[in-house]
Design goal:
Elements (H helix, E strand, L loop, with lengths): L2 H22 L3 E6 L4 H14 L4 E5 L8 H7 L5 E5 L13 H21 L4 E5 L1 H6 L5 H10 L5 E5 L5 H6 L2 E5 L19
Parallel strand pairs: 1-5, 1-6, 2-3, 2-4, 4-5
Length: 197
Amino acid sequence: MDGQSNQRSYINLSSLLCVIEREKRGWVIVYTGDGKGKSTAAFGMAIRAVGHGWKVAILQFVKGSWPTGEEKAFAHLSERVLFKKLGIGFVTWNPKRPYEEHLEAAKRAWEEAKNVVSSNVYRLVILDEINNATRFGLIPVEEVLSLIDTKPKEVNLVLTGRGADERIIQKADLVTEMKNVKHPFDKGEWARVGIDY
């Protein structure tokens, strides 16, 4: 081999190693906006990740204990997916639960989230409706920013929910804003099994 061929081989190998290293770096992904589909998009990503052999953690911050289709589906994938509902229901729609109860549930959920992320066991961690939790003052935005800064390099972190804080959006690698154009809820229809939950 001449010197020029060796140089090309070195450059190609170096480029390949850069691509591999880049793929190891986990992203911060935000799904926000007033439209439907934020959690659904994150759950679709979870299915894709499981298909590639990844371990996935899904922690729900606001949704209550009622059964959902996604919970039932992920139960079949429990070897690869940790799925936990840690909230006690919608903050604004649940007047029977004082704000303090929501605050305590959010604190417990946040401690669990920090442990799950820092464990580096899960390559994809979805903090479902974390943006709502910060918007309602249940979790300080500064703590979420700190988690983004200190997460293990390989962990991909997905943050869903309406009203993502601008500072979180700035730190994220990928942000999608769902926009509500038309929804049956506007005509008084309630959520549907298999479509909404």
